[in-house]
Amino acid sequence: MCGIVGYVGKKPVVDILLDGLEQLEYRGYDSSGIAIKTATSIDVYKAEGKLANLRDVLRPNADKITQSTMGIGHIRWATHGAPTVLNAHPHTCNCGNLVVVHNGIIENYKELRSELEAEGCTFRSQTDTETVSHLVASIYAEVKDLTKAVQIATKKIEGAYALCIMHNNEPEKLVVTKRNAPLLIGVGEGEFFVASDVPAIIKHTKKAIYLTDNQVATLTPNSLKIENEKEEEIEPKVEVLPWEPVALSKMGYKHFMLKEIHEQPDVIRNILVGKLHTSNSPIVLNEVKLNKETLKNLNRIQVIACGTSLHAAMIGKYIIENFCEIPVDVEASSEYIYRKTVTDEHTLVIGVSQSGETADTLTAIKQSKARGSHILIITNRPDSAMAREADSLVPVSAGIEVSVAATKSYIAQLTSFYLLALYMAEIKGTMAQSDLTNLKAEMLLLPQKIEQILAHKEEIQTCARKYANTRDFIYIARGINYPTALEGALKLKEISYINATGYPAGELKHGPIAMLDETMPVLSVLMKGSVYEKILSNSEEAKARNARMIALTNSTDAKLDDLFDFIIRVPEVTELLSPIVAMIPLQLIAYYIAEFLGKDVDQPRNLAKSVTVE
Ligand code: AGP
């Protein structure tokens, strides 16, 4: 949700900022901008839309700025004000001497804006951020010290922010600070980098300092000073980042999403290595600190997540309750944090997040931690803010996911939930040995089953083309695959903008059935098992209302041929593991529909990969 970068050192700054922003484009792509310190002034360049537009704006100005060695940059996901050039960051004060880039939301911006307007400041944008540039500039006019001005200003600001600020009168100085938003400082030789996330700096340095809330750091090419809220200097804690620079490539695929869908067999293999050796060996989760005693003392589990991770959490509930006999509640983090939530030291709280930075989930985790719950985090980013709050960690190891629509991270989260549930069941002794062995044996076969589906993707492409020109789409399922229907619908909505909804199949007759006619595609997730016959009946009900029926099934039942207009077949799999197998065709259907409609598959409109505002 917005990305910020900054650099102060001896190297030409423009490419460092643009490369950094490119790495952060997953955080938003509504607009971008940079501010460069030149010998006499601060020059600001901005563009609407993707970063490529900013590169076009900069081209004719290249000679003017190539020698500059200090600057800040921003990539925006709009919260306050439309995605226009005027609302793009960096924002300046009226004299143009101070520039600010910001990630977060200034909650009291209206009050601050009124006060600053009364003092004579003229606002040009509709953003909350512009209040920060005027506020810091007006304090600077009195105190004549940028660090001091930022310290005073942040005491007046309410909300979440990561800020990087420079002033024309302080030619070799960046001041950065944060509260409830990610920010790290990369440490180089005679240079410092600032970024919202590691990929923006890893090419330049592996040494970094994670700023904590309310600290203010002052950076010059050869000095770093970090002060806490009481303005006491503190010793910086420099960490070595466990990252290697990776060149992100589509490897010949048309989009990152398609490449990431194809990576899923290997993602599962990688996760299982070291954790599940054979069907007879126990599950190994080294960073999970739950023992017999702690599990005995638990009376419930609460899982919190957003979006795709929430759907993984819903399947997690199903399998943990089934394997471990512990009651599990699942809730969207954004709902969880604004009510009286009852958790205590007898509750295990599981946070699920690809990015490990999602603001709602992070806040929920912090609230539960304060109430004494054991915090277990399932994340693709073991270096994230959520992972740093964790008592136990399950790293999902899906590798970097570039496409905004989550695919491989979802399959990785599901795989991790199975491992965790089996791990707890082994400790608690709640599963028969034969069931454990059979399930583990089937898990080891999952990568091959996904490969079989991918080998027949043309059939799914045909299905996608047949139904691409529809306004609405309904997915139905029951039991463990109800979240599969929700996730299938979310994937389609995100990248094709078709109004897709997932329903528990049994709920269709309680209202949604009114929408059915000969124009409406209804996709039934019809996996063999406890609810197969029930979904079949619900599909009959939809067929009777002339809906265009599609089956996603592992059944070879001949009677399906009369009922469904299109059948997508997947390999045989036990019902308990079917959500992993069933999801692959649904990802492909969403992908092929969006691709056929010519949509921006990897960067769909209005979205960002990491949502760091509540
Ligand atoms: C998935 O395709 C999404 N774009 C989105 O719903 C995402 O899952 C959600 O924002 C949660 O993100 P997280 O997993 O990084 O916490």
Radius of gyration: 26 Å
Total strands: 25
Strand portion, in percent?
Answer: 15-25%
Taken together, the total number of domains comes to 3
The CATH class of the largest domain = Alpha Beta
The neighbouring-strand order within the major sheet is 3-2-4-1-10-9-11-15
CATH topology of the largest domain: the name is: Glutamine Phosphoribosylpyrophosphate, subunit 1, domain 1
Instruction: Show unreliable segments.
Output: none
Present as ligands are:
2-deoxy-2-amino glucitol-6-phosphate
- CATH architecture field of the largest domain: 4-Layer Sandwich
Question: pLDDT average, as an integer?
Answer: 95
Shape field = globular
Q: How does the major sheet shape up?
A: 8 strands, antiparallel
| Relative helix content | 25-40%
Number of helices: 20
The chain-level structural class is alpha/beta
End-to-end CA span: 10 Å
Explain what the structure shows.
With 614 residues, the chain is α/β, with parallel strands linked by helices. It folds into three domains: 3-247, 4-Layer Sandwich (Glutamine Phosphoribosylpyrophosphate, subunit 1, domain 1), CATH 3.60.20.10; 249-451, Rossmann fold; 458-596, Rossmann fold, CATH 3.40.50.10490. The chain has 20 helices and 25 strands. An eight-stranded antiparallel sheet has the order 3-2-4-1-10-9-11-15, with helices on one face. Strands 5-6-7-8-12-13-14 form a seven-stranded antiparallel sheet. A five-stranded parallel sheet has the order 17-16-18-19-20, with helices on both faces. α4 (109-118) packs across α5, α8 packs parallel to α14 (408-428) and α17 runs parallel beside α20 (578-596). The longest helix is centred in the last third of the chain and has 23 residues, at 433-455. The chain starts with a strand and ends in an 18-residue tail after the last helix. The protein binds 2-deoxy-2-amino glucitol-6-phosphate (AGP). The site of 2-deoxy-2-amino glucitol-6-phosphate (AGP) has 16 residues, from α10.
